[in-house]
Amino acid sequence: QVAESGGGLVPPGGSLRLSCAATGLNFRNWKMAWYRQTPGKERELVARITPDPDSVITYSDSVKGRFTISKDSAKSTVYLQMNNLKSEDTGVYYCNADSAYLRDRVYWGQGTQVTVSS
Which of 10, 24, 25, 65 could form a disulfide with 14 if both were Cys (CB 3.0 to 4.6 A apart)? Predict the structure, then answer.
C-alpha cells in the first residue's frame, strides 16, 4: 500500500527528497509518517502529518529545522525533504500509514536507504 523512493548516497550538508506513494489511501483517513532505523538503534519517528484537513505536523528534535514533511493528497503521496544532512542521518527510512479510524490498521513500506558520507 505504501512504497518509498528517493534514497541514495549524499555528502554531509547535502539534500535528498524522499517520496512515499500511498496507493489507494485517502489522506482524510490516514496519519502519515516517516520513520528511520539507524545502525545500532531502534526504529524512530522522524516526522508525522495528521489527516486532512488539519495536517498537523510534528518532528523529532534531531531533524527539526532540517527536514520537512509534506503531502499531495490528490496524488496520495507524502514527501520528506531532507536538508543539511549529517552522517547520523544515515539509515533506512520507512513510510508509515496509520488509520485514524481503524484500530491497528497500519501499513509500512519496504524502506529506502539513505547514506550520508563523503
Answer: 10
